[in-house]
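Dear colleagues,

I hope this message finds you well. In preparation for our joint manuscript, I am sending the Fructose-1,6-bisphosphate aldolase, class II (Thermohalobacter berrensis) sequence together with its predicted structure, so that both groups work from identical material. I would be grateful if you could confirm receipt.
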Amino acid sequence: MLVTGKEILQDAHKKGYAVGAFNVNNMEIVQAIIQAAEETNSPVILQASQGGLKYAGVEYIAAMAKVAAEKAKVPVAIHLDHGTDFTQIVKCIRNGFTSVMIDGSKHPFEENIAVTKKVVEIAHAAGVSVEAELGKIGGTEDDITVDEKDATFTDPDEAEKFVKETGVDYLAIAIGTAHGPYKGEPKLDFDRLKTIKERLNMPLVLHGSSGVPEESIKKAVSLGINKINIDTDIRLAFNGAVRDFVKNNPDVYDPRKILGPAREAMKEVIKGKMTIFGSVDRA
Ligand SMILES: O=C(COP(=O)(O)O)N(O)CCCOP(=O)(O)O
Ligand SMILES: [Zn+2]
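The corresponding structure tokens are as follows:
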């Protein structure tokens, strides 16, 4: 059933588990996520970045996600990931998204507060939940690039002021993760996470979670992470399955036969994440 991000994440926050937020760019990815959620009885967040909306069109993403959510036997929220453009954010709200991220992390602190407050006001008026970002999460994906040196961790004092002044529902924090594939093993600042959780006592979000070792993810969940963003690991599962199939079936040209195994491979990866996050049987 279609719910807001806040409904899903408040439960996760209260009971100490995390919910996967998986990026969608086409029908097979949407189906893989929903199948994984139903097979594990997990709540789940379908999310699209601005890059994903550019690729598929907001109407297509919204239509697929709404059908999927309304038919699903588990709670599903539809989330805009890394929204930076106010018009785009309003467009998502008008298209039925139940959660939006305003990523003001590239602005100075006071400006991040200002842009975030503006989105909270309009989103809450429409019954839509809001995620914001404080501190800079490094790494590269299609539309997001933050150099290592510019990646700055979230300051607990600033986080307290930020949340009080903006009224956001959940906060993406920078504690050592980065978007996209890792070169070495990411070292997460768990002490910082613990302090921020104690000070804010609200749902927290981890970006750049693909490739983070399982024990680090479990420790982050135990210390208060409740929404975990995954994109790269889904891309890698899709990519591997398609390449394998095409290599082994050079004469097959039916997209259903090529994309079907990719859907299955993505589903298995996503079910594994839900187990690690602790969202299994929480629906
Ligand atoms: O935090 C994450 C996922 O990080 P991961 O890929 O490292 O799992 N995200 O917000 C996904 C960002 C995807 O952006 P784009 O569609 O522009 O490439
Ligand atoms: Zn992200």
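For the figure legend, we might mention the following. Residues 82, 179, 207, 229 surround zinc ion (ligand 2) (CB under 6 Å). The chain has a mean pLDDT of 96.

With kind regards,
E.M.
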